[in-house]
Write a sequence for this structure.
């Protein structure tokens, strides 16, 4: 008698055998009562398990996943206004940087155009560009007080002081608007940072999942 | 999502605990042009001096009816003036040309050496930070230099070149716009000049704005490409492609990090501005060292120039041209050192960001499949 086929009986019982192996097991079972008895035992055990009623503690995989999903912390559906505010919030730094770039390009181009005009390269093509020379308030007042033609030294000194005043004024002006943009940017960055830190330290964000 | 706080504090820790990085940061500060400076263009017209109140429409002293004729006359007068100068001061004329050539050659040499040093330092910094983060090993200068002195640093240069091509295109475009306006001015037709000028300014404005926005994105791509090239070792175009793909996949995280870095750069700019006066005071002391370093090549130049029959004070001018870069490098070393800290920190932040993103992409978080 060929060797027993006990190691294949479980697979045979579950209908998992194919081809030569299936034929080999079937042939053997026709001749071997010992293996046939073992197969009957296996099948009766299987029937018993199928008929058994699941206890209360047992949970199907699908139900387990569904229950887990229900317990996961979920984000509530944000209303439209909230979404719009959030988008606006994220746009702030980009708007600030865009404004800075826009103003820088504008000033650079106007500076270039002004110098080209000053050099007389534009001829008389833009008569409306012929604005009055800039003067500080105190300079205009002094000129009005002492007449339009003071002595040479006085005039040169006043001109130098006037020009220095105007340059400092310009410099401060250009620093100020950039500083203002920087302060708003820092305000945004600081509030983002605080928001981020608060979100991470919120106990419910950690505990909800643990429950 | 990136843990930005962790990356920033970790980079800070690396900066203060890995002193050898300061040396490469110093080299970077010496060789990297100031990128964050903004042109301080006046917002009003008052920056013009009051003396120059009326524009010189007539181009006084130039003959001709149209601007074209006036320019031709101006060029002719300039040529005649140069001829006159050469006849009156033959030695000085020759020497000025020699000094100009020397300055040009020096600029070329220092530009070339600076470019090499820059990319070696960039490569070394990226590798050193990566290795320190990976294994905690700190290397010395020689090993760091060896990290940088490789073909990869050449790749970094090529990547930078490819990324900066739009700027090159912008300059060509602006040049064409300028030429367009100049030709209109030379034609002497005022309506044509007005039209070309307004359209030219509009075009220049749009093209500059578009290029600025494009370069903001491309600079981030460049930072990632450099790290991919140094740490993964891919080719130039492949690296840029990978960096683009990485940026597209992680645009939220990278964008956020970029915004934070902008804030840090502004803050650093303010701190640097406040530090500049004490640093310049310290530079007075280091200037002595600068003199010591510059004196030997300076005296050598004086000797050689005298041998080549440069008269009077001219050998000293040549010596000044040759030794000035050395003097500046040493005299202003405190300023360069502090600027180097900023550059090293920035490089570390982007290296750690790249590492973090790669880790997040490699170890994908587990996905819970919801029930139907």
């Amino acid at each position: 008698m060929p060797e027993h086929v006990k190691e294949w009986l479980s697979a045979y019982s579950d209908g998992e055998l194919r081809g030569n192996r299936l034929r080999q097991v079937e042939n053997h079972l026709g001749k071997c009562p010992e293996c046939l008895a073992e197969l009957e035992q296996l099948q009766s055990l299987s029937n018993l398990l199928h008929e058994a009623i699941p206890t209360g503690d047992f949970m199907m995989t699908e139900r387990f996943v569904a229950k887990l999903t229900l317990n996961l912390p979920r984000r509530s559906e944000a209303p439209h206004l909230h979404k719009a505010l959030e988008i606006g919030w994220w746009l702030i730094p980009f708007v600030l940087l865009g404004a800075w770039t826009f103003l820088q390009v504008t000033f650079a181009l106007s500076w270039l155009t002004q110098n080209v005009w000053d050099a007389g390269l534009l001829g008389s093509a833009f008569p409306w560009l012929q604005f009055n020379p800039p003067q500080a308030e105190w300079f205009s007042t002094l000129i009005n007080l002492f007449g339009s033609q003071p002595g040479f030294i006085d005039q040169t000194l006043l001109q130098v002081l006037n020009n220095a005043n105007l340059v400092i004024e310009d410099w401060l002006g250009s620093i100020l608007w950039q500083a203002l943009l920087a302060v708003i940017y820092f305000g945004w960055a600081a509030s983002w940072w605080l928001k981020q830190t608060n979100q991470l330290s919120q106990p419910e964000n950690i505990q909800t999942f643990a429950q | 999502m990136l843990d930005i706080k962790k990356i920033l504090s970790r980079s800070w820790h690396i900066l203060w605990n890995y002193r050898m990085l300061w040396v490469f940061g110093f080299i970077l500060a010496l060789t990297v042009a100031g990128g964050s400076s903004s042109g301080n263009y006046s917002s009003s017209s008052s920056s013009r001096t009051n003396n120059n109140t009326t524009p010189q429409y007539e181009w006084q002293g130039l003959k001709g009816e149209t601007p074209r004729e006036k320019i031709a006359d101006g060029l002719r007068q300039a040529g005649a003036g140069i001829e006159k100068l050469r006849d009156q001061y033959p030695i000085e004329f020759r020497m000025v040309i020699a000094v100009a050539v020397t300055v040009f050659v020096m600029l070329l040499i220092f530009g070339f050496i600076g470019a090499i040093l820059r990319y070696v330092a960039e490569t070394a910094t990226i590798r050193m930070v990566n290795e320190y983060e990976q294994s905690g090993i700190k290397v010395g200068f020689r090993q760091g230099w060896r990290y940088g002195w490789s073909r990869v640093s050449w790749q970094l240069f090529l990547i930078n070149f490819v990324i900066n091509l739009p700027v090159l295109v912008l300059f060509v475009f602006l040049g064409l716009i300028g030429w367009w306006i100049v030709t209109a001015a030379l034609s002497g037709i005022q309506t044509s000049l007005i039209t070309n000028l307004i359209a030219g300014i509009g075009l220049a404005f749009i093209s500059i704005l578009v290029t600025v926005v494009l370069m903001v994105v491309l600079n981030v791509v460049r930072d990632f490409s450099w790290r991919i090239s140094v740490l993964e070792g891919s080719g130039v175009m492949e690296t840029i492609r990978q960096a683009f793909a990485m940026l597209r996949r992680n645009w939220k995280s990278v964008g956020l990090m970029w915004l934070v870095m902008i804030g840090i750069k502004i803050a650093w700019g303010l701190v640097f501005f406040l530090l500049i006066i004490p640093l310049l005071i310290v530079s007075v002391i280091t200037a002595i060292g600068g003199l010591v370093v510059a004196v030997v090549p300076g005296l050598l130049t004086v000797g050689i120039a005298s041998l080549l029959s440069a008269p009077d004070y001219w050998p000293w001018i040549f010596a000044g041209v040759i030794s000035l870069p050395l003097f500046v490098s040493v005299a202003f070393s405190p300023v360069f050192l502090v600027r180097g800290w900023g550059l090293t920190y920035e490089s570390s932040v982007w290296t750690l960001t790249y590492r973090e993103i790669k880790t997040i992409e490699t170890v994908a978080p587990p996905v819970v499949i919801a029930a139907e």
About this structure: Chain A touches chain B through 56 residues (CB under 8 Å).
